[in-house]
Amino acid sequence: MINGESKQEGKITIFQLRDDLTTSKVKAFLKKMNEIVELGHRFIVLDLSQVDEVCLLAMVSISSIFNRVRQSGGALKIVGLTPSVRRGFRQTNLINTIEVFDEALEAVKSFKSHNLLRSKHFSGSFFLKDSNSFVGWDRLPLTGHYQ
Length: 147
Description:
This protein is of the alpha/beta class. The protein has one domain (4-139): STAS domain (Transcription Regulator spoIIAA), CATH 3.30.750. It has helices spanning 23-38, 56-71, 83-91, 104-110; strands spanning 4-9, 12-17, 43-47, 75-79, 100-101, 125-128, 133-136. The chain has a five-stranded mixed beta sheet with strand order 1-2-3-4-5. Strands 6-7 form a two-stranded antiparallel ribbon. Helix 3 (83-91) links the parallel strand 4 (75-79) and strand 5. It starts with a strand and ends in an 11-residue tail after the last strand.
């Protein structure tokens, strides 16, 4: 079993992983991610902000999920790389393959290009620290990401 939590924001699924991706956890992680994809979720944000270790097999698994989602017309985006995990992403060149963001809000906003803003199934708002207020999805400012 993998420790993590899934959250739905309209057509976007945010999965926050709470386990290190060691060799012993990869199978459970892959099973969970495949379940998410099999349920028809094509727009996924993988939050790794609570992960300090990712083995090479896990990197291959993340790449596999990225390709599977992309082939179905969706996208996988990564959020919150810790320094050690970022090093692994650089060493395997995944940092240049998969979009990486500092925060989940940035990743969610990046899906604007998929026309999800106009989705009738989206509901919700986000708390913006800068303005100390909640802002509806359709009023989110677009910002760039880094790689």
